[in-house]
Write a structure and sequence with these properties.
Helix content: 25-40%
Order of helices and strands: HHEEEHEEEEEEHEEHEEHHEEHHEHH
Number of helices: 11
Largest sheet: 8 strands, mixed
Structural class: alpha/beta
Strand order of the largest sheet: 5-6-4-3-10-13-12-14
Shape: globular
Strand content: 15-25%
Distance between the termini: 52 Å
Length: 420
Amino acid sequence: TAVVLGIAIVATVSTVSVIHSSVESASRYIISGIGLYYSYPYVGRHGGDGDRSIDNDGSSIKNTRHRVYCMVPTMDSDSEKAKWTAILETWGRHCDVLRFFVDGDEQGAWYYWNATVRAAPSSSSLGDNDDNEKATHVRAKVIQIRTLRPRLCESKPIVAFSLPKAKNNLREPQTVRAKTASVDVSHGADKAKAKPCRNIWEKVWRTWQYVDEHDADEADWYVKVDTDTFFFPQNLRDYVASMRYQPSDPYYFGHQLRHAGPMIAGSSSAFSREALRRLAASTGSNATDKRCADGHGVEEPFVGGCLYSKGVVPRDAFDERGREKFMVLSLGEHLTMVPPKNISLVRKDYEWYFGFGNPQTNWGKDCCSDRPIALHRIQPDQMRAMYSLFTQQGNHSDDRGKFMDVEREYLSTVKSGFSI
């Protein structure tokens, strides 16, 4: 590859293009701790131009406004409701439309979730606020999605094996369930041992079908956001504008991983209106490809595989310095971790990130864009503290215990795009 690249320096423009294609093809093969496996080429690294159209003073790009729909899959529990309130009090107020989606028995039934805030933002009304109360109250719909798969399951191992002892004793031997079967025990004797089924994929595809049917004209960009994520709607608007992405074209972007195929994983994933249309039209009873069919488990591999079968390739999102805009680990982890020399030495809970992430990712304090789109693993009290910091509201003297020093240093550089 070095020889080829050396020749490229003195080659003609057309030759450089050919060589680039060859290098891209070669990059499909990535070494992991398990061995050599085939991977799809990374798309979206050219997203480095993402911030170049933003004014030097940090003001937003002057463009036709991109409407953002925030889809938040969640559960109807007290702990999750605390997160709903924090979201409404902070970044959720800046979405053009904000919806919470919960499991329920009546498809499409909904009610409002309310929060009281200091002042409503001028940039958004969430699509649901009462104009007479905008100064103090915001609200968003909580919508039921009815799933048909079992609600209570016991995971039964199909294949089990032991991992070898890692070098330097970084990982102890352990039994791993390589594959599991989801067994319905809703009415059986084992009900006491059961846990809620991980029917996340079914809930997500049914949710996107609901959104496509009822809200397809409400926005240009549709973003799935976890409840422990701090999302920056204006930074997403600026990014798609600077990249000249159009909602009528199929775009699907965020933090890209390479498991069984290309997919966006982690804190949030963004879809253009056209990508949403293709996904909704291809899933569930509409599925003609097994990658779009209903199945058990988390949604990311299904979404990635289904969209890939429909000609939609996932894209990373970086700024002009190669820093990520979608963070999937905690902020402290992104700012302090370094890539291992050998993937087999990585703690098991990080194997997916180091083994299947983008090999061009920056590390340490240069990891993360100062115009992020999503920060992950953020608790409600941290959301409020961050929002106060970004909007210069409130007293920050009691915020120091909520963040590590390296996190506070980074957050002080963030350009949030929030206006109150």
